[in-house]
Amino acid sequence: MNFTAKDKKILTFVGVFLLVFFSWKFFFSPQFKSISSIKKEINEKKDIYSYNLIYKEKSNNIESELKFLNQRLQDLKSKYPTNLNYDEVFVILKKLASSSGVNISSIKFDEKSGTSAIKNAGGDIPQVTNAASADQGILPTPQDTAAAIPLDAYGKKIQDFINELGLSPQLDLNGKSTIKNGEGYKIGIKLMGTGKINQIEGFLKNIEEMKNKTLYSQLQINKVKDDELNFSLNLSFLGISSSKAGEKIIDDKDIPVSEKDIRQDIFNPYEGYVEQDIVKNSNIGDNTKNLTLGEIKKYDFTMRVMPYGDNIAPPTVSLTAKKAVQTGTNWNTPVVYGDSSKEVNTELFVEGVKGKYYFKFKTNQEAFPDQYINTHEFIPEGNEITLLVDSTPRKFLSDKSSAVINIINKTSMNVKVNVINEDKNNPRVKFENIQPNIIISYR
């Protein structure tokens, strides 16, 4: 078959067209779609990576943040206990009366009941825990247990005595406590007693300075003879109920470090460290200083420096302003925390302006006031600004945590720093940029 030149051109054109068409349809087009899909996936991965970087930055200090939250919950629980027993309240009142010199002649307890005074007096208080039912494996509360155990003759007498004094817990028809977890409660007390005016003032001051939050009202004072006075008042101990929380509130020195592994020997202490190599030249127990609450209250600022622990152990550094001026009703003592297995940088800034004194402080992770821009007023105890630094001797070679303290003093007074319980062989507390108006002593 003979093709003309025109036919050859047409066939060539058709062949090239078909080749291009099928090449595009079955090769190039899928490749371009695949490339487009890969580009889209790359962009999505880049977005995810960017988000992950943001969350990575936020999660770098998540363990320390959990420690800070746990410590603040401990502080909250010390102010609003999760449970208060009547015998504990009785002992507290006895100590307050003995220290002030008043004589308590009559105590009348009200039933433990719910209250909104906590929210009204101190702002919104977060719930301590969520309620859980017994079928979820939650142990019954002491009130539930007491209601379930049948009483013998002696037990009934004790129960009648408690009921007569108004000490029985508030229960519903099923014998359950009517105060739910996370709700505020109060123990109301009617007090009557005698004392001199300065003794009564001291008693009221002791109540106001208590760690546990209390409210008193309907105070009445009448003269008996000479300088002897009768007084009466209504007193309320406040708390936040939680059937799952521990009943005993303990100081940070006594909070046990969470253990990573099961300890086999109960006589071998565990401090939460991976390595348990004991320091040979440790001076634990040598010249350990335990100050009384009255001595600590005299300091304008206090700092606690501890070993680094795992899980929700206390933060390695806590810095508190004891003499900060209270502002508003929703007020808590300023405190910042720092946490690191190595160094925690801390800074305390104080200045005097027109006869008043102001401060701000910070660690690597927190600052007061926020953003570390403004300052807050405080009132020094005496003619010098005082800082107590309570350190901790090292027990293990793996213990490398320390605090580096920088004090900036822009006042006309000296800043006197007392360091106690320091490790003589390997100091945990270090100072930098020490100025002539900063005096450091070790006890």
Report on this model:
It is a single chain. This protein has 443 residues and is α/β, with parallel strands linked by helices. It has three domains: 56 residues; 148 residues, Alpha-Beta Plaits, CATH 3.30.70.60; 171 residues, no CATH class. Helix content is 29%, strand content 26%. It is built from eight helices and 17 strands. Strands 8-7-6-13-15-17 form a six-stranded mixed β-sheet, with no helix packed on it. Strands 9, 10, 11, 12, 14 and 16 form a six-stranded mixed β-sheet that branches. The chain is elongated, with a radius of gyration of 34 Å. The N and C termini lie far apart (117 Å). About 15% of the residues have low confidence.
Strand content: 25-35%
Low-confidence stretches: 120-149, 164-170, 246-276
End-to-end Cα distance = 117 Å
Mean pLDDT: 75
Overall strand count: 17
Helix segment tally:
8
Order of helices and strands: HHHEEHHHEHEEHEEEEEEEEEEEE
Give the radius of gyration.
Answer: 34 Å
Number of structural units classed as domains: 3
The side-by-side strand order for the widest beta sheet comes to 8-7-6-13-15-17
Q: How many strands, what sense, and barrel or not for the largest sheet?
A: 6 strands, mixed
Q: State the share of residues found in helices, binned by percent.
A: 25-40%
Shape: elongated
Task: Kindly name the structural category.
Answer: alpha/beta
